[in-house]
Amino acid sequence: MQKFEKLLTEYFAATDKTIQKQAEDKLWQLYGTTGAVLIMDMSGFSLVTQKYGIVYYLSMIYRMQQITRPTVEKHNGTIVKFVADNVFARFDEPAQAIDAVIEINNLLDKENQKTPDLWDIQVAAGIDYGNFLLTDDDDYFGDVVNKASKLGEDIARGGEILVTQDAMNRVESSTDYKREHLEFTVSGIKLNTYSIHY
Asked: I want to staple 147 with a disulfide (CB 3.0 to 4.6 A). Which of 26, 95, 128, 158 is the partner?
């Protein structure tokens, strides 16, 4: 990430707007890409941890990751990172991300049937599509990452998939799942969103 950080430093240190713009343009030229961003969050972290302890919840996170990684890859996605009980992934197209989350939810439902209710795992998902910066070590940054995060971590409930209008515009209308239009305002950002029903 050294080159990325160097360009950020140049941008921040620039007193001349032309030099600042050149650093910004260089960042987008070298690291800019377009695609679908998926961010998932496990439901109930605070409550479960408080009731059963962190080791209990870490074991649930591990189980979720064991299901999530191969399913994301099966749908031509890439896991960017796992952070605590969050999943950050990217895909070429939103439909791939939606299909991956539907399969993850179905697999988690099957897994949950094998264990007592207190071991149940549910994930909330947010998906957006657009331009973002993808660093050399495959981390990502941008407005689409922020929007997917707001949807997946702050708004969606367990088992829910929320998709922005920009992402939904890329999805064929012939897909099998139904869409419910919703609008949210989070941190001053208005989000035209669809809840996916399958």
From this structure: 128
For residue 182 the two structure tokens come to: 């919703």
Cβ density class 164-174: b for 16+ within 10 Å, e for less: bebbbeebeee
Query: Cβ of 57: how many Cβ atoms within 10 Å?
Result: 21
Between the two ends of the chain, the Cα-to-Cα distance in Å is 40
The amino acid sitting at 102 is I
Q: Which of 37-46, 78-87, 143-152 is predicted least confidently? A: 37-46
Q: Name which of 83, 80, 79, 56 is nearest 67 in CA terms.
A: 79
Closest CA to 130 of 165, 102, 159: 165
Q: Is the pTM here over 0.85, yes or no?
A: yes
Between 43 and 21, the more confident residue is 21
C-alpha to C-alpha distance for 148 and 88, rounded to whole angstroms: 9
Give per-residue pLDDT as tens, 97-146. Answer: 999 999 999 999 998 898 877 778 999 999 999 999 999 888 999 999 99
> What's the CA gap between 159 and 196, in Å, rounded?
10
Q: What is the helix (H) or strand (E) element at residue 197, kind and residue range?
A: strand 189-197
Burial 15-46 (b: 16+ CB within 10 A, else e): eeeeeeeebeeebeeebeeebbbbbbbbbebe
